[in-house]
């Protein structure tokens, strides 16, 4: 199968190469023919997140360039989890991990093609780990890992004083064994992952060399951070989840729409499949007129469509346009409206007590701090219910005003809005 000889240059231009093993050897391998590569995803949560998305789009780039993906969902390694910088991970039950494995697998599959000469293959390391005896594991895998090198890993070093269990300490052996297994059974010679995985990636390369005298390659993508260098979110909370049940498509689209100007070029190169020429032109237009936020709009549309599809992206955009006064709220689906308003701030009221007047609604939702302020805002023409300006401070919405059967959308000015759900 023919391959794209410019793949490594493209990855480098996009900023996707934080570390590599022998760069010249990797370039030669990627230029000679279709390389079998793997990338792994541990089901330590019920959904993948922004950090995993970097690996998903990178795998897609490699497959589009003619290489052959093996996507590994770690039913075994997910039982343990890679060591964190602070504290031990909670160990989840086998049933929980099995459920999360299936959910993660379903999220990975749409990013790859399972047809053609370089069709993708899904694998689960539980299949070859669950029947392995402790004696065999220690003899066949453990003997190849010098403890001093394991202790030198940054995350291990940082945990030594507070304490790290042997379970997490030995994670690198399990991930390295995955690379050896795929090397032996499927001829996989390349693994990649995030830069926080570099010790695990090189551990697998070294295990293949020590155990089988084989040659393998690895590269790591950089961690995506904000302009101030901090992370976008932690896996325990606040993460940019890919599952719309954990983070609505509206909130997902809004995240990208609010990207910092300083990071917009990097995010476009990392997460979209626009060409270099397209991105250069877009960034030039953005630099000239950043207030138009064209680059953020393209980023939000491209990534949301990639993850959630065109129809959901259209709904998210329609919701934003309607909520900010530029569209018809009544055209939104109940789910989209609920997701958007819940994200913005919403309250539930008992429908049995009737719908309050607009002044009470403004204070109940926090759009006004007092009834006096609410009345002044109405008098100034700054209050809207369902995008209709309210001119009478004594106005009381009726049941016919409820959107999707239960919602009122209140807005103060151009950008402050809240939802009220009558139950």
From TrEMBL:
The keyword Electron transport belongs to this UniProt entry's keyword annotation: no
GO molecular function: tyrosine-tRNA ligase activity
Positions with a binding annotation for L-tyrosine: 38, 171, 175
Enzyme class: ligase
Chain ranges of the RNA-binding S4 domain: 356-414
UniProt feature coiled coil, ranges: none
Catalytic activity: tRNA(Tyr) + L-tyrosine + ATP = L-tyrosyl-tRNA(Tyr) + AMP + diphosphate + H(+)
Family of the protein in this entry: Belongs to the class-I aminoacyl-tRNA synthetase family. TyrS type 1 subfamily.
Name by which UniProt lists this protein: Tyrosine--tRNA ligase
Organism in which the protein naturally occurs: Nocardioides bizhenqiangii
